[in-house]
Write a structure and sequence with these properties.
Helix content is about 50%, strand content about 5%. By secondary structure, the chain is mostly helical. The protein has one domain: Response regulator (Rossmann fold). α4 links the parallel β1 and β2. The two termini are about 25 Å apart.
């Protein structure tokens, strides 16, 4: 859902080919999205019914300027695949909070701006300190699922606004 939302929001702001969004995970490859997610995205005018899960790889995260995850455990797994990617990987809510709280050089390219957001982090601190995560709505009642998706959608809007501002160069 995050990838579909970000792709749509960034396509609207920057054009169809300005930014590449990839979705991957740590579960089995080839799995379709859950029906609740398909319906939630359909209500937003997005069709994710043909999406199939893919595995996160070191090559994938090494090529990315920014890696957004749902959970801290995902950040840790990305860093295990590619230690250099740790400085470009955050949970979606962590990213939104960092972009709101930290002034970043507006002239920096996207990758440099992202790295500046995480320059204060250490691996041990990341494992110890609280980190905001996306609440997984899977299996929730419809109203709870929709509330979680609405929050994800707002966080994606905030993230897309920040990314778009740094991708127009």
């Amino acid at each position: 859902m995050m990838a579909a939302l970000l792709q749509s929001l960034l396509r609207d702001r920057l054009g169809p080919d300005a930014v590449e969004i990839r979705s991957s995970g740590f579960g089995p490859a080839g799995m379709p999205p859950i029906e609740d997610a398909v319906e939630a995205m359909r209500r937003r005018g997005l069709d994710i019914s043909e999406h199939r899960s893919t595995s996160t790889t070191a090559a994938l995260v090494d090529a990315a300027d920014l890696v957004l995850t749902a959970e801290r455990a995902h950040v840790v797994k990305v860093a295990a695949l590619s230690p250099a990617a740790f400085e470009r990987t955050m949970t979606l809510p962590e990213f939104v909070a960092a972009t709101a709280a930290s002034p970043v050089d507006a002239d920096a390219d996207l990758r440099s701006a992202v790295v500046a957001l995480t320059s204060h982090r250490t691996a041990s601190g990341y494992l110890r300190d609280p980190v905001a995560e996306v609440a997984d709505p899977t299996g929730s009642a419809p109203r709870t699922f929709e509330a979680a998706v609405t929050l994800i959608e707002q966080q994606c809007r905030d993230a897309a606004t920040w990314v778009a501002a740094r991708s127009r160069r």
